From TrEMBL:
Molecular-function GO terms, alphabetical: 6-phosphogluconolactonase activity
Domain Glucosamine/galactosamine-6-phosphate isomerase: 20-252
Keyword Hydrolase in annotation: yes
Catalytic function, reaction form: 6-phospho-D-glucono-1,5-lactone + H2O = 6-phospho-D-gluconate + H(+)
Protein name: Probable 6-phosphogluconolactonase
A GO BP entry: carbohydrate metabolic process
Family the UniProt entry places it in: Belongs to the glucosamine/galactosamine-6-phosphate isomerase family. 6-phosphogluconolactonase subfamily.
């Protein structure tokens, strides 16, 4: 059953609330298909960056009818918003998660799948990935921002941890202040594994579309904090609150549990 909160604007944010993860997954698939169609119509290509975590299973309906047939998969170019520094066959790998749960179920072109090198150091992998993205911006596989030299992905899909982290951007971490690099690395992630590669905030906030997909009651408190317009006076903003595309669209996809502490959220019976 749809909730009355679905599609409502909360403090200028498009926050869509669904009864359960199945309904959310259905609407997320429709949203991704629409954004993909628009990008392919506008520029012949769809450049999408994926996160890991719960997002991938929430993309499951995109692998089913009608999307497995109607989406123009050959035009998709796939990237990762963040990656853990582990082998691609390791259970912690965001690439492996997407490969097993999504990429092997849809007809994407293997050479369009741009994963992060798992056989070098975190620092080198971040440098290489930024280099690759710079090349693909030059050839316009990825668009460029109208306001900076940043890449403009057609769609960036994020999850959010209970602590308010997005990608591998954790609360109070110095990489939140990074303004030059497009891709960077950390070696002290509070959530294992410690070494990670991540897009920086300027890249995420330059995207044409950003969706933050969150389920579960353990994230409800944080969802309220980060979707609420008010700044918390005594602490720096959580990473998820810093997701504010400068010239793009931001949509929050929540299930009822994740939305349960939202101020003013009303659910229909
Ligand atoms: O460590 C990570 O966590 C976030 C959130 O994951 P979730 O399972 O709580 O949704 C994820 O978006 C990120 O890609 C991943 O590396």
């Amino acid at each position: 059953m749809a909730l009355s909160g679905a599609g409502k604007q909360t403090n200028g944010r498009d926050v869509r609330i669904y009864e359960n993860s199945d309904e959310l997954s259905t609407e997320l698939a429709e949203y991704i298909a629409e954004v993909s169609e628009t990008a392919v119509k506008d520029r012949g290509i769809f450049a999408i960056a994926l996160s890991g975590g719960s997002l991938i299973s929430l993309m499951r309906k995109l692998c089913e009818t009608p999307y497995n047939k109607t989406v123009d998969w050959a035009k998709w170019y796939i990237f990762w918003v963040d990656e853990r520094v582990v082998a691609k066959s390791h259970q912690d790998s965001n690439y492996k998660l997407a490969k097993d749960g999504f990429l092997t179920k849809v007809p994407v072109i293997p050479s369009h799948v741009h994963s992060i090198n798992d056989s070098v150091s975190a620092e080198q992998a971040a440098e290489e990935y930024e280099f690759l993205i710079r090349q693909l911006v030059r050839t316009r596989v990825i668009s460029v921002s109208d306001f900076s030299d940043c890449p403009k992905f057609d769609l960036i899909l994020l999850g959010m941890g209970p602590d308010g982290h997005v990608a591998s951007l954790f609360p109070d971490h110095s990489v939140l202040k990074e303004t030059e690099a497009w891709v960077t690395f950390i070696i002290d992630s509070p959530k294992p594994p410690p070494e990670r590669i991540t897009f920086t905030l300027p890249v995420i906030n330059s995207a044409s579309n950003v969706a933050v997909v969150v389920t579960g009651s353990n994230k409800a408190e944080t969802v309220n904090i980060v979707t609420n317009g008010d700044a918390e006076p005594d602490r720096p903003p959580l990473p998820a609150k810093m997701i504010q595309p400068s010239n793009g669209e931001l949509v929050w996809f929540l299930d009822k549990a994740a939305a349960s502490k939202l101020d003013g959220a009303k659910f229909s019976e």
